[in-house]
Each structure stands twice: as C-alpha cells, then as structure tokens.
Amino acid sequence: MSLSREKRKTERIAWLMTAPALMGLVLFLAIPFLIALFLSFCQYKLGSPLPLRFVAFEQFSRIFSDTAFRQALVNNTLFALIVVPLQTGAALSLAMLLNRPLRCMSFFRTIFFMPVVFPMALVSVVWELIYAPGPNGLLNNLLIHLTLGGWAPVDFLHHPAYALPAIMLLSLWQGVGFQMVIVLAGLQSIPATLYEAAVLDGAGPWQRFVHVTLPQLRNTLIFVGLVTTILAFRLFDQIWILTQGGPKQATTTVIFEAVRAVFRRQDVARGAAMSVVFFCIVLGITLVQRYLLRQEREMD
After folding, report:
1. Is 63-299 a domain of CATH 3.30.450.40?
2. Which of 35, 92, 122, 262 has its CA 20 to 30 A from that of 274?
3. Where are the domains of the chain?
C-alpha cells in the first residue's frame, strides 16, 4: 500500500510540475487551432455587416483555386527542396570541421552560431544592403570584380528569377548555425571506440564517415531535416521585410498569404483555412519523421 501511495504522490507532483506547460499549450496552441479550424469552415470578415456563415469546404475550394495561394505552395515546396539539403549538408560539414580538439575552437563555433541569435529583421536589413541594386550594391560589386566587369548589375530582390534564390541564400546563412550545433552534439555522442575499431579494420577517412559517422547521425539528421523543413514552410519574416511576396508572386508563401488575408483583407476565415492547410503540411512532415525513426528502432 505504501508503494501505491508513493506512486500516486509522485504522479500528483508530476502533474503539478507539468501543469503550467500544459496550460500554455492549451491556451496558446490548442484553443487557437480549434478556433481556426472552426473559422476555416465559415465565411467571415472583420468589419463586415454580414454575420458569420457556415460554408463547409467552400473556403478551402476558394484558396486552392487562388493562383497566389497555389504559387505560395510551390514557392514553399521549392524553398524546402533546395534549402533543407543544402543547409543540412553545410551544417554537417561545419560540425565535422569544428569537432576537433584545437585551440580557439570555441571561438569559431560562436562565430558560426552568431547569426542564429540575431533577429531576422536585423538580418534582413543587412542583406537588403548586400542585395542593393546597381554597381554600388555589395553583391553586385563583388560579382563585377570577380568577373572582371562582365557581370551586369541586377536588382536581386525585384527580379522574378533572382528574388527567391536571394531569400534562400539569406535563410541558409542565417540558420545553418542552429543545425550545426545539433549535428555537433550528435557527433560528440558517437563512441570513440567505433572509430578505433574502424581504423583497426583498415577503414580510411571516407569509409569511417560513410560506415560510422552517417549511421550514428541518422536520427540527428532526420530531426534536423524535420525542423528545417518546418521552418522552410514557416517562411515569413524575410518575405514581409524584403519583397512583400513579389515580384509577380515569386516569393509569396503560405504564411505570408494567410497574414495578408487577415490583416489586409480582413478575411479571417480565409486566413484560418490557409493556417489549417499549413498545419496539415507540418503534421504530414512530422508523421514521416516518426515513421523513419520507428523503422530505425525496428532495425536495431
């Protein structure tokens, strides 16, 4: 009986300790999502004299027939397909480079991580100066010198072909430090005995990387890929500050379209429907990650 009472006491303490976090999740995540889910099946605009009206799936039909929203899905998908592998590969390369017992290594780790702690608004303003049009823009000026005058200055943020790649480069530079720290932690958790055994078996650096490092980092890389993909679909700050979704919807995103629907058009229901679509995308990515991790555990 004493053991049972002790167990119930421990459970009560555990619930008491987790109560603030659970209340935060319910108040700021669960309830807002349920409200958004309800509004996505309705027709409602702020300031409109018309009452809230239930329209079932009509709101979703409208947003998927909207060329701007479809382009936003394409842009988000393209952004994720390019940035996620590049950022993950760069993070792995940097982590391996910095996973060495050398002097001043902490300084270099701090330097590479520093862009992550900068506000995206500040980073976007700095990169706006880098992408400035004309020969006096930093990037244009650099390309002119590298090509010995052969490069014609481009307005990167207002050119349909260059705007999205420019946002990709900015995001990759700003976020790679976060992934680097996670991969670095994964590298440092790999037992040194595995590398020692591989050396005794005659494995070279590349073989140790392929047969020891990558398998041991599988779960870490899956997690990094998941987080980076979710952040890719949450792309908003850079777009709002630098391009406003232009030029010609070349950089518009799902979140940008949802925010524009609510705060510019006052169409709360339309924005809610877009948010629900975004939630379904993130949920699908999470389920894929869980499936991959479950397969790994079953193989072990």
Report:
1. no
2. 122
3. 63-299
> Which residues face 53 on adjacent strands?
43
By C-alpha distance, which of 84, 254, 89, 52 is closest to 183? 89
Predicted TM-score (pTM) above 0.85: yes
Distances, alpha carbon 225 to alpha carbons 181, 251, 272, in Å: 14, 22, 27
Name the residue type at position 195: Y
The rounded distance, in Å, linking the Cα atoms of 132 and 128 is 6
Encode pLDDT of 88-126 as tens digits.
999 999 999 888 877 777 888 888 888 888 888 889 999
Whether 272 contacts 37, CB under 8 Å: yes
Which candidate, 87, 132, 130, 79, places its Cα nearest to that of 251?
A: 79
Structure tokens at 27: 């108040």
